Amino acid sequence: MEFLVLLAFPMVACGCFPGHRSDLSSGLLALTLTTLPRQAETELFNDMFSFMWHVASMLSFASEDIYDQYMQRYHLSTMKKIVPPECVTAGLPHPRTVDEVSKTPVPQLMLSALDLVQAWITASEDLPLPGLVPHRVFNYYSLLFLLEQGIQSYVKRKEETCDLPTYKRFYLNDDTVHLQVANSDLLYCLKTDMLRVLTYLRLSYCATTDMC
Question: Are the CB atoms for 112 and 94 separated by under 8 Å?
Fold first, then answer.
């Protein structure tokens, strides 16, 4: 079972398709989901959900680490705003408080996580930013794309939406303080959004599997 679950993931997780969404990786995931014996569905669900939770944990940790590295590299810690930057996903109608999250149905929590993941797909191709220590264990974009595919295997939107917010690309030539601050604001939003993704998936997993 574990072999079948992971079969769809390694080429994406290792970054074998950098910068491009892969029809092959999507096909492998779809094949894994549609060819397993019927009696194995529950075990598959738990294994894949647990794997997605693990991927979300890695992304959340990496986001915070990249943000801290960037702030230290350009000595921006003393310039932190009292009021956090306004993130483009701030206006999404997602649950915020612990009480709101706990009362939100699992499908809606997963759709909220999907909104946040998709908002970062394009911008994540720039990570880690030049001059920062690379995360050799994985390719950030590839794992974010993998997480998107995993969530979409569980929940489908009732209708296509083209107006969901997305983040702009990072400034790779950040040779002015203005651009450095702009990048730091984006990184702040990234770590905030990835923590929310992790929270939504963790609570969805606990509510669905009753294994927490």
Answer: yes
Phi-psi region of 83 (alpha: psi -120 to 50; beta: other; left: phi over 0): beta
Task: Please give the single-letter amino acid code of residue 96.
Answer: R
d(CA 11, CA 27): 12
pLDDT tens-digit profile of 103-139? 999 999 999 999 999 999 999 999 999 989 886 656 8
Dihedral sign, Cα of residue 190, residue 67, residue 96, residue 56: positive
Amino acid at 9: F
Q: What is the pLDDT of residues 37-69, one digit of tens each?
A: 444 455 656 778 888 989 999 999 999 999 999
How is residue 157 annotated by DSSP?
-
- The Cα–Cα gap between 159 and 1 comes to 33
pTM: 0.79
Buried b (16+ CB within 10 A) or exposed e, 51-89: bbbebbebbbebbbebbebbbeebebeeeeeeeeeebeb
List the structure tokens of 76. Answer: 């921006």
What six digits make up the tokens of 14? 């290792």
Distance between CA 171 and CA 146 in Å, rounded? Answer: 25
Q: Is 34 helix (H, G, I), strand (E, B) or coil?
A: helix
123 vs 4: CA distance, rounded Å: 31
